[in-house]
Amino acid sequence: MKIVRPICADDCRVLLAWRNHPETRRWCFDDRVIDPLAHEAWFRDLLGDPQRVGLMLIDEGLPVAHIRFDPCHQPGQLTISIMTSPEHRGRGYGRDLLGQALHHEEVTRRAVLVRAETFENNAAARKLFEGAGFKLMGHGTRQGHAYLEWRLPISPLFVQYPFGLEGEGPLLAAVLDMLATFEITPRFVVRSEPYSRENVASGVLGASSPLSIHLQDQALATGARALFICDWPERIPPELLAHFKDGIFALRRAASQNEAFLELHPGLFECYGVTTATVGGMVLDHLAHLVFRRQSPADERPTARPRPVSPVPDAEGH
């Protein structure tokens, strides 16, 4: 009989043995053997951290697979690390555990979106996440390893959150492609090419411009609470903010046509060096923040505390 339970103190040595097995280390960003004392300290912090979730799959009384969810830089997201007992690989335990964990109360209370990273050459891990409904969002290189990034919304509010899109060119196209992948439909989409050419040649957009008026009308008509703006000119009129309860997210080009930065008005500025292929992922990040805030009142969220740096590199794959 298979059951999923939270990790406990008895799992400490089991996880260390799995993590230090050569086949597991093969799929780690850092493939060093972990020192037992360092692992014990890390495991104590894991058990005591309310922001993280650790689950173990038990089959016929034996632990066969482990999954951990760690918080991301954006609220409402968790990153998955999953590991199967070296003696039980290839039996579908990773698939069974992932499928159950995505609906576990401790996970859904902490996140509306989950993400994972897999090595490009790890076909088994890719099959695992594709089979669970994850979508490929991009790729990168870290510590000499080429990896793929996967994401999956786990809250039904993702397809209900009222937001609008404005933009032009490849940035808007990238966002629309991402939203279609996850079957997320914005309340409205405004393509600003004619407005931009006719009214904002100076690079300054006024609140009385046809584009601003049109966006305000769309917000009022559709009930949109957030606006994602792609490739807009250099200034957003403060008057427009009043029409969006959660603010405006502006995505503009940087010096290179292959880069962009994301600016959140008012008051918060974040900078990313990204290609247009990952712009959709950036919008998904901020949409997750909004959905999580709507789903989870502040007094019901897990208490946050500083997280220690883990001496145990995540085991990538299953």
Automatic annotation (TrEMBL):
<dbReference type="InterPro" id="IPR000182">
    <property type="entry name" value="GNAT_dom"/>
</dbReference>
<dbReference type="Pfam" id="PF13302">
    <property type="entry name" value="Acetyltransf_3"/>
</dbReference>
<feature type="region of interest" description="Disordered">
    <location>
        <begin position="295"/>
        <end position="318"/>
    </location>
</feature>
<feature type="domain" description="N-acetyltransferase">
    <location>
        <begin position="2"/>
        <end position="155"/>
    </location>
</feature>
<dbReference type="GO" id="GO:0016747">
    <property type="term" value="F:acyltransferase activity, transferring groups other than amino-acyl groups"/>
</dbReference>
<dbReference type="InterPro" id="IPR016181">
    <property type="entry name" value="Acyl_CoA_acyltransferase"/>
</dbReference>
<protein>
    <recommendedName>
        <fullName>N-acetyltransferase domain-containing protein</fullName>
    </recommendedName>
</protein>
